Protein 1
Amino acid sequence: MLVLTRSLLVLTATGIGLFLGSASAQTADEHTSEVKRIMDHASYKEAVKFIDGDYDRVIAEGIKLTEIPAPPFKEEKRAAAYAQMFKDVGLTDVEIDPEGNVLGIRKGTAGDGKFVAITAHLDTVFPEGTDVTVKREGTKLYAPGIGDDTLSLAINLGYIRALNSAKIQTKEDILFVGTVGEEGLGDLRGVRYLFTKGKYKDKIKAFFTVEGGGITSVTNGGIGSKRYRVTYKGPGGHSYSAFGLVNPAFALGEAISLFSRSFVPAKPKTTFNVGVITGGTSVNSIPFEVSMEVDMRSESDAELKRIEERLLTIVQQAADTENFARSTKEGKITVKAELIGDRPSGSTAETQPMYQFTKAALEANGYKPNYSWGSTDANMPMSLGIPALSIGAKGPDKNGRSHSLDEWADVEKGPFVKGMNTALIPLLAVTGLQ
Amino acid sequence: MLVLTRSLLVLTATGIGLFLGSASAQTADEHTSEVKRIMDHASYKEAVKFIDGDYDRVIAEGIKLTEIPAPPFKEEKRAAAYAQMFKDVGLTDVEIDPEGNVLGIRKGTAGDGKFVAITAHLDTVFPEGTDVTVKREGTKLYAPGIGDDTLSLAINLGYIRALNSAKIQTKEDILFVGTVGEEGLGDLRGVRYLFTKGKYKDKIKAFFTVEGGGITSVTNGGIGSKRYRVTYKGPGGHSYSAFGLVNPAFALGEAISLFSRSFVPAKPKTTFNVGVITGGTSVNSIPFEVSMEVDMRSESDAELKRIEERLLTIVQQAADTENFARSTKEGKITVKAELIGDRPSGSTAETQPMYQFTKAALEANGYKPNYSWGSTDANMPMSLGIPALSIGAKGPDKNGRSHSLDEWADVEKGPFVKGMNTALIPLLAVTGLQ
């Protein structure tokens, strides 16, 4: 029987290469069969039972981690707490690498020196001083970063405890990671380090990141993004006595106004944002420097290039306009557009086993996967041709307002636990449940 | 002889009321004569000689004070140093009042319980962390705040030493003040406290403030100003997944762009400025809040009202535009325009003795006074009908780039000392050189 054959193949194959590399030789049915094998497996059932009993602890740890602020470039405290949690759940080789990522290993039975990475990101978008106290209303938790991505950190801890409790052995060595710098100006610095500089560089053959969405959110494309800091400088001066001189805030306002009127297609999805503005020293001084931070993303490299070129045209045009509108006798407005983020794009083909396992696992549990492109830690391996997916493990449509102060996650037990149980299946399929 | 008569009047009059209140009874010639009397006076000549020898010390103290940062609302350190300097030059009743102003008295021979105030302001426009190191190139000193207004603090100390050294007695009690909060959001808080709450409230009958300009800069009109903090709020959200929601930065950009295109008349001089912008939390989040600080001034109340109304119209219009341009399903853009500065206007009539003495002193020394309106500590007494002038005591056209990082003052000895000597004359005329 094909299912059995498939299972035998899993058990006897010389490597996970069969799953990762030879997808074209497999059929969707084979993935469905493997998912069924896992769901019927006594160890998986034991893990599911454990997860049900462990739910309160996962939520408590999620709240605990959420309330340790992890602003961009300042994830140290949360990382230290997470490293201790990795040790407490029995991972080996626990360390915080030089970039700040938290790493730990759960050995497999037949690892080949390459790892399947299961990750979540430590950082949030929120600056220092943001109130990160978790507020609960019924089953809803409100806090900046609760959904994106702190509960995922706790979910991964729950998975490790479940594997241990159910005495599950995987064929592959698993590298669990809490990454830094996934958000904003972090520019994927954690995962970038992992794949290009760290000790596990060239040793990761498949990559899952558990992200902020629910179980039906599967991100199989890494959206390319370009981020700029655009700085206008001018001579500055007294708002009254030097009135009439060029004002960099006027140039910036003009640039934002023009940029806000840009057309971008809904498909391929293309977006643009002015996320941060800053500048000037006092209300009665013409600023000598103002700046904005701009984020642009697209599923299409051509569209990304189009909006990027438009931005670069506009910002120069706004400087020129201001230099024509007011006096430049003390100096002109100058503009600098500095590339501060350049996220690689890539995708994981439908034919990849990890894609098929995830699809089959969701469908077997009555979910309809919602595939999308995103900008996550998975961009990095995707851009390197390493199979990678960003998945969700919470209940579907049970979180929202990510990156806003009223971010929330509904952790109603039934959907939450079912989401965790379902997402565990592709993880076990790719790591090779023995 | 009119001059003598005039001098006798000075010596025998029952009060300074003759100088301050009965200008209409005097002719320009009488003021010219009094200026001549002072310039011929042995004590004045002695003071002039002293100022020449004291020059190095004035400059050194100006540099010392400039290098003690005095950002808005954070003048404490400079105030403490200045209070000590007031004590060192022998002022009595030296104190720092509850608002932070530094006060000290030099008693006159026939004070009537009311004071002539001679002031300069302690604060600069520059925020904490600004490099305030003074750089010297030849006779030019470069530093933020050097001209506006720190050298004036040192000049006033020089005047006190000169009066003491020349054993000059004035009829009037003099209240020397280093004020806080003259700049920006300080909104004249120091001088406002002095005239409306402090212990010398209702006890100041004439007011000189030594300001950043040179000797020919005489500010006899206090420009009214209105200052607003305009804040746009919106729902915020993820720059990619929530793309399409209203963005407060876009509304702000639109408002700035429209505002930058406002027409204001050159006469009556009317100005507008966007001085500070801030907002947003990360490049990949739609901001939930952004704001700008706006300064508007006019010699004409009607023009000030006109530009103020235009601003208030524009900021609402920009919110409406953004609410029409993008989705409001998670919430609309709201705008709040908060009045953060409202400086009173007023003027000191040409017929006032202090105006005439200043004019005569400048002309007697070969200077052509350049009268203007400004926004200085003198606005406050002017608005209360108390005679007040903002004068300069440095060389003419020897400073520039006020409120910018490359602010400079040329302290070439000849023009500097001549400026000081000239400005001393109206001070002595109004305080009554015995």
Protein 2
Amino acid sequence: MSGRTDHTLVTLIPGDGIGPECVDAARRIVEATGAPIDWEEAEAGAEVFKKGLPSGVPPETMDSITRTRVALKGPLETPVGFGEKSANVTLRKLFETYANVRPVRELPGVTTTYSGRGIDLVMVRENVEDLYAGIEHMQTPGVAQCLKLISVKGSEKIARFAFEFARSEYRSSVACATKANIMKFTEGTLKRVFERVAPDYPELGSWHVIVDNCAHQLVKKPEQYDVIVTTNMNGDILSDLSSALVGGLGFAPSANIGNEIAIFEAVHGSAPKYAGKDVINPTAVILSAVMMLRYLEMFEEAEAIEHAVLVTLESGVLTGDVVGYDRGTPTTTYRDTIIGNLGKRTENWIVRDHRPLQLPVLDAAPDYVRPASRAVVGLDVFVESPLSAAELGASLMELTSDTRLSLKMISSRGTKVFPPTGAITDTLDHWRCRFIIKENPGDLPDEDVHQLLARISRRHMWMHTEKLQEFEGELGFTRDQGEN
Amino acid sequence: MSGRTDHTLVTLIPGDGIGPECVDAARRIVEATGAPIDWEEAEAGAEVFKKGLPSGVPPETMDSITRTRVALKGPLETPVGFGEKSANVTLRKLFETYANVRPVRELPGVTTTYSGRGIDLVMVRENVEDLYAGIEHMQTPGVAQCLKLISVKGSEKIARFAFEFARSEYRSSVACATKANIMKFTEGTLKRVFERVAPDYPELGSWHVIVDNCAHQLVKKPEQYDVIVTTNMNGDILSDLSSALVGGLGFAPSANIGNEIAIFEAVHGSAPKYAGKDVINPTAVILSAVMMLRYLEMFEEAEAIEHAVLVTLESGVLTGDVVGYDRGTPTTTYRDTIIGNLGKRTENWIVRDHRPLQLPVLDAAPDYVRPASRAVVGLDVFVESPLSAAELGASLMELTSDTRLSLKMISSRGTKVFPPTGAITDTLDHWRCRFIIKENPGDLPDEDVHQLLARISRRHMWMHTEKLQEFEGELGFTRDQGEN
């Protein structure tokens, strides 16, 4: 921990299980390149949870990352019975590392079904929004809800980041994978923003692909992709799918990059059963350190390590996860072989050129989108009731007949059930009741919303409301299956 | 359209693009087996949309399916500019076909990266709940929301269906793939229900797998899976991933099965550019018809067609999608070859035995889960504001100081930002403000909810509320990142 002022300080989190061995290997290899880095060791994970800290991340570690702005970390465990949230996710969210970057490339000696096809792609996954926010509410005793939230600002950050990352690696295209055909507001936001910003990167090809087709294509012809940008939950699945194309989690590095802070880590878990046995594959953390060096613009050191890893793998020095744990090269030998290969260059495998990554800077104001006009045109009230749709509909119409709103329809999980449509729909005790303002055009004041809720409360239980809004004349809500 | 009373009536929807050719091939092959089926042709899709019907499904088609209870259909198109919803999805939802079944098996002559590994799995995807309900609301001009709804009843239906389907095909195991580690209420519901019902099927192995790992494993070692059951959106991705393992959409049949009605269809689209050219691959619809025959317990006819398809493919008779459109067998020749091969049996490829599928029958009452005790303990109010978190927090505390609720925290997309945590969080104009009842234990009457909303309305815009409920002493809501 020298603190020499010409050195960059990096927070080093050994983590749990096999983490310390992986992180130690990466640290020694980085040091062997002479990269001007000083390390500040910090704690997080299982031991911290067990001390009673429900986040798994102590304030000193938060302080260290806030100061150094860069962390290299091993996997963190959330021990069963301690804490509700993953410490890995906590770090990503608290430091607004909105871009999860996972390179997926074929490596020498690591044979898979796809060997020889030259897979070399990067998955860029939005890292702080979407279902991963984990905002859940039991709507009724038997119906659970999670909110999927996607913002224009968050989408613009991740879309621009993907193009900038492609530029920094001299790549040729960015594909955007969403489910915009089913979720036109949430998933559609990323698609629309992606298509809007793409012309700012004219040297890069760009196209949109439906996310399920993207999964299909990744299995069928992964070599067609260069950079893929996607939303958080879908990206979780696509990233893990992709890492399997090239040899699994032992070789899967990742970066979590925000505009202020970046955290580099392996994708794999803490694998406690292999810990301390000098048998594990530290490549994922080593390649994460390579990503970190490039982020710090230490391009020569990064390139030296990448070449040394490729030369090592080409020479057949492979860990137990690849060749079997009875025959694998010990972790420390693997590490030292890579150190010994620093300076050598592979002739057969590509190491990309890199240039500095430009992080997108957006308008910092919270109200990122400012419409010229807007109005509240109705209210969705989610009611819990054991009544039938017809009974509930009749009751709600009676209760609200003299308000400024009228009941337009009731739906069950997105399918209209009142007025009746002739469909066969299995209903639950969870009903979405849509009320629309009678005047047209209209703009509903809150007093009328409060009155409507008070009327419904006379006879029914409601647990959730959503205002129906219009922005610049466009409906800000979807219609239900069967709704006109 | 004979109407012989010993025959089963099936609604036949030719659909759009290549649909009529695929459906015609399947129909003629089924007829050639002598299966006791009469067909009732019905319309849906592009032409119906263009006539101005926004669902794409005319009442006569609804009536036909309601009467016959079984449909075989081609792909339906939603022409750009007509209708907001897919007619395929409309049919699934209006008839409560809650189980989407997609078998994925290796076929002779259809070479893929995975050939020779004996892939033979079935993806069972929940088909009517989840994000696919498409319930979206713009929360602010720049923040979109989609509701992910998962019910205990829906989960029990799909979990039991998966086990029953495995039984009907004499399979050995069912894996359940969810993201329960991040979404413990929604995704967790399927996991918990699956684990609760599994002991009712003691002859079947069962285990849970995190959905991203499932995607990884499907690429790495797909032969480990037999039946996989999963939620709707994740299942969409996993299904399309899986179909690529064995040769793509031309060979991917599917069934949408509910307790009253079943709809059999290919997974592929209408591919208009190949329509009418006698070049397309009708196998997916043919194999969908095989699934239909088994559903109708016409096991011998189903087996005869499955053998004939395998014999045809083994003999090298392959359509243009497999061998190139300049060299492919015409659709009609392919169809007639299969008809000619009826009665032949393959020696090299497995055709499974089948027994009747038992559909799970559950308590029909809408209030499927009835807790012994419950209470409302607070309210989440989602506020749109250009203020900072600190300013908004101070204002809300002042406004609500003499109510029965106190402001516990404010979060931005699931990460706590007030009281301040020291985290770096990029905030938007969308804030989730959590109010908790001051008494403990307490149960908040609606009057206090209305009063709180009225207080907030004095100075701020809110667009969404969620009651915070407890059921049998368990919290019915999640905590945020950084919340104690």
Protein 3
Amino acid sequence: MTYLPRTHRLADLTWPEIDELRPHAPVAIVPLGATEQHGLGMAQRTDTARAEAVADMVARRMSPQVVVTPTIPVGMSEHHMAFPGTLTLSPVTLQQIVVELVTSLHRHGWRRIFVLTGHGGNNAAVDVAVSRLRAEFTDTHIAWSGVTPVVSDLVKQNSDSPVRGHSCEIETSQALYVDPELVLPDRLVRGSATLDDLDPAGRLARSHPGIQFPQGYDALSRTGNLGDPRLATAELGALLVDAVVDRVCDFLTGLIGLPDRSPAPPPAHIALETS
Amino acid sequence: MTYLPRTHRLADLTWPEIDELRPHAPVAIVPLGATEQHGLGMAQRTDTARAEAVADMVARRMSPQVVVTPTIPVGMSEHHMAFPGTLTLSPVTLQQIVVELVTSLHRHGWRRIFVLTGHGGNNAAVDVAVSRLRAEFTDTHIAWSGVTPVVSDLVKQNSDSPVRGHSCEIETSQALYVDPELVLPDRLVRGSATLDDLDPAGRLARSHPGIQFPQGYDALSRTGNLGDPRLATAELGALLVDAVVDRVCDFLTGLIGLPDRSPAPPPAHIALETS
Amino acid sequence: MTYLPRTHRLADLTWPEIDELRPHAPVAIVPLGATEQHGLGMAQRTDTARAEAVADMVARRMSPQVVVTPTIPVGMSEHHMAFPGTLTLSPVTLQQIVVELVTSLHRHGWRRIFVLTGHGGNNAAVDVAVSRLRAEFTDTHIAWSGVTPVVSDLVKQNSDSPVRGHSCEIETSQALYVDPELVLPDRLVRGSATLDDLDPAGRLARSHPGIQFPQGYDALSRTGNLGDPRLATAELGALLVDAVVDRVCDFLTGLIGLPDRSPAPPPAHIALETS
Amino acid sequence: MTYLPRTHRLADLTWPEIDELRPHAPVAIVPLGATEQHGLGMAQRTDTARAEAVADMVARRMSPQVVVTPTIPVGMSEHHMAFPGTLTLSPVTLQQIVVELVTSLHRHGWRRIFVLTGHGGNNAAVDVAVSRLRAEFTDTHIAWSGVTPVVSDLVKQNSDSPVRGHSCEIETSQALYVDPELVLPDRLVRGSATLDDLDPAGRLARSHPGIQFPQGYDALSRTGNLGDPRLATAELGALLVDAVVDRVCDFLTGLIGLPDRSPAPPPAHIALETS
Amino acid sequence: MTYLPRTHRLADLTWPEIDELRPHAPVAIVPLGATEQHGLGMAQRTDTARAEAVADMVARRMSPQVVVTPTIPVGMSEHHMAFPGTLTLSPVTLQQIVVELVTSLHRHGWRRIFVLTGHGGNNAAVDVAVSRLRAEFTDTHIAWSGVTPVVSDLVKQNSDSPVRGHSCEIETSQALYVDPELVLPDRLVRGSATLDDLDPAGRLARSHPGIQFPQGYDALSRTGNLGDPRLATAELGALLVDAVVDRVCDFLTGLIGLPDRSPAPPPAHIALETS
Amino acid sequence: MTYLPRTHRLADLTWPEIDELRPHAPVAIVPLGATEQHGLGMAQRTDTARAEAVADMVARRMSPQVVVTPTIPVGMSEHHMAFPGTLTLSPVTLQQIVVELVTSLHRHGWRRIFVLTGHGGNNAAVDVAVSRLRAEFTDTHIAWSGVTPVVSDLVKQNSDSPVRGHSCEIETSQALYVDPELVLPDRLVRGSATLDDLDPAGRLARSHPGIQFPQGYDALSRTGNLGDPRLATAELGALLVDAVVDRVCDFLTGLIGLPDRSPAPPPAHIALETS
């Protein structure tokens, strides 16, 4: 395939370019970010930057098969609002944004769509949106993921902090790799990294797997971060992010290979055959 | 403590009894179920029954510290609608139900609330609802869980099916333990239990951990179930459900022991101290 | 007709059983309840129990022609929230529940649907929901009622209390018949049973037929009930409930006998013919 | 009381006049109408006109104690949409209008509010709105009624049609009294006036008191009206409307005489005293 | 064309009359008003009256080509709520009213619709509603305007007040022309008519064209009006309103002359031809 | 004032930096963009880029008095959806985004907020949002503008096209100045630049000032643009954009100089003094 678009970003293209690209690009990625505190030494746009970087790397690797919409730079960050500067959308509004962006893509003919959120706080809203979209667009394959959860096996192998997640060494490493300007290395401090660093509610929340007891980050950490970002390295970030890109590309290749989605025939009377 | 209420179920009590019980019962559980197909041999109310049974067992064990609201018998089951008889609520309506039930409890003075869903399809809506409630009621501890995810370690030790989850041996065992009338043992059939049993989209969905690619159950399984429920036993159900009850009781005991929730003081100017 | 389903309750059946039952069962009943105070001597689930009992009795009598969805155990009970333990949904959420349950039934092929509310506080929300559903599903017959209003003639013949309605001898009699465990007979007390028992607003509300001046029950009655439930008997309950069942069965038989609903042809130009 | 405002209609006054009138006028009436077909010989604005006329007559009789907002000239008329020209609002929008008008009045200090609907199709939406408003404004007395239901006893004494209601002799008589221009007497025709005039669904709907089985008016009547409006007289209209005015004035006088509404004290521990 | 309807107002007609008129009347006008303070000497219904008057004059001039719905007598008037008696709808509710009225008209066959608002505060809600309607009804031409903005050139020629707009000489002149009862001439006072009459925020708002800095009218003017209504004359009102009518008629004549609206063919591949 | 923040962009800062900056930065700007077709030779992100550039230039000029939130990169672009690649939000969702971003800023202490939209299609939604926010946050000054409307006088002086607006020489000049990569100069073509270039509906829409008759851009222009962008120059762009920046800075300086906003005292009884 010798055709190469000027870029995979829908926002950077003209409409005739998109018109030409469309038949070559079966997949559209919708990246979601956040503007929320990331501790003492990392910029508020970290989640936006990580989602956008992964989307761009995937699209470049698979060019011209993937287009990317602009990254939504705010998300569901209520649990960070005690820190100055965090911006938050309600979950209903975030759902609606995802639904309407995907609906726009669907109207232009896309039938394989991937929502990629750099911020775990967006998960529930995305999940609900995808559920609604699957029911409405029965001809469309739609999938979603976060960034870090795609490599949770590698995370376990590369971090020893009993408590980690937000603005820890794992996330900070990714930031150092995708955009070093996100990080002020000499401001990084160890956050709440062990159960003992947490207040009683935080300890309770972290010691019962399978039970969700969400806490505001002001309760979890005086500095707004978990783990120990001083241990972060760009090398670890590369290892993690490149693996995310590999795996998402692998998934999208599978997605492209699927037959078009169509409603299954009604399963009635199967019972009689099987019993 | 010698006071014992007639029952822990709010629906079975009179208002003067609830008035008397209230100071003794700091925790309220809100159970959520579903009415959805559970394969050829299990009743549609299975998720409702499991959530209600766990809530009742927890409340009896901790009596009089826990009250239980009526179980909502329908949930988010869009992905089962291709099978005759499944009922489904939209995610927005389910969110709203949880928000309004918890708001009612809050108006009557409860400040420690646990939402327990027997149906995984409800998770995202519950997550969003809890997030909204945390932001609105800053004086209330609120947590939630499913049933099976609380014992995912035990599930791994007791099931070999590479593909399982809905109406598999794990869920059917629970049903046999909490209410044997849920199961028609001679109708149980092996469902989609290995990747090879799935269609290409189902295989893709199940082979990329961390990536969510939700599928209608009509695409996943001709019979509507996964795994092999013929392997289910009431003994395994007892092992799993009793462990869920143990762990939820342990969590709730911790929850009761927490100080009252109150908004944290603003963290401003911490930076200066730490850098 | 010799075919008999295991039960008429959708929640208790498997999907193949529902698939088999569906062509024999043209009518679906959606029962609605409430969790609200019922005075000093009756359980909060009284309305749920009455709606469910009537639905079950109707379905058994007409078997296999009627299926029943799970009873929604909470309703619109804002006017009882001053008493400990009452749970309430907003009218918009309750509307939405009815709309979505009926929509689910419609997707599975039901075209004759009956919503039965055990709680009068749900009426307006049900009325609105039914109105929306009629407009949307022009191929579906949809009707609704309460329990007691179906036998208002018999109520007048069997009660002398000038003020009655909630948790009075009429409702308590029904409870004693459908489920004696709902009632704690030695706790029953006379409530506000005459205009003199009411406060001025309550008196005003009850003395202008046709004008609605809704009052919180805390204003209407110190004990939360009207009338005199000490006069209740299971015999009166049987007389009332059996008559409700007779009349609903009679209506549903008529409903089954109707031709399928279809949009009427446009009435344009009728004027010319008639004038 | 010698003060007399120029008019009781808020829309016709200037703000300084309203400022002066406010302390003399404890009651505000919110009239609601409809724009919907009224058979072959009556204008679509009939319900608007009847509500407005009653509100004006009440306010003049009780001057200066009552102010009146502008009549909302459209309502919930989905069941008439098969006839050319009917306009309809959704029930949610109509609820919202009532809520927002009453909220505006509340912000200006009114604490006794009466919603008067000339159109029965608005009832459920008004009921829901009033329920929401009672819960939100705990310092406000709020009541509502239709026009004809206030004199249902007189209706029974003055009409023999077994089937009546919409655009029948009762409604047409009112129209002839409040505004003769509403009626084109030589176009009036007998509508569906007996059960035999109805189609099977209409007959079923009208023969089970207490069961609601709403029908589109296109199904109920080829001409869009019930009863026999040729029997209407302005004298009967005067008898009915004057009685409505009497009774509403009587109610509002009672409403003005009530103490200010305030939330009742919590009823907790009453049980102990009474049992 | 010799056919003449009894009136152009849908609310005043019967359905058979509308049925007959419909093919002769391709255009429907939806007038919107407000109930809001208009200074010391003008009635709250001024915007309603001006919109209705223009709609009626247009419809009479173009008879039988134009029908008119009832004027909605309340609008978005939050910025006037500091004055006693103003009523306001939320913008979402107002949008919904416009959407639902136009939808009703569309269901009856109208495909050329004009929304005419007498109140500038309604503009944004109308704009949003029209945008939604255009997207939904792709076969319908829909346009909207205010009253005064249609003759902004004439306004400039006939007013010297540096600050004007609400209840100024321009609006008062229109009121004197369309309905002299709207005005109490001896109560009229000069309002805020120059930048010096405004508070600092008002001055800032009025001195940066293109920047919107909305102010409550209580901040803009102690009396609730701008400009100097004592300069108003019925002659100026006639000049302005007659010009509005001329121009709207001219536009509607153009609208009737347009071909039916239909979705344009997709513009794809135009690029290749043009580049 | 010698304090200088690292940057004015909230997304690029850490929370302690924002905490430090906050008391120095009384104004927050919320930029809004769009992803929509801009003719054959300009990128879809043009509106996003122009809004962001102006916000950044203003903030740098006034540093440290102004902070800037991330630009929302999609807007209300329904009227461009016939061209491949345009993304659109519903007006309700866009309103909600603005409301929630401003609410977040308000929670962090900002009381002077400026919403700047690069896309005219967003205007109505922004207007509604600002109206809601003014009513809710009575202690906050909130203003908004587009980019080009701030210099409409200069536009008139520098363009001769009778029809212009979208992707014309004015907008393209701005793009050349703020980010030359937005433009593919050799793809630029003359769009619909005179009334004769428009279809009949477009001509009608453009020939009645004050009447809004919105048209899809597919109807207005085969290429999706108006005017003649081949006439664009970076010099003209500099003239226009620099003037926008000057004027917005001037306005914001005025805004900072205003006293804190507070609700005005009620104006009651002013009438007596003045008449």
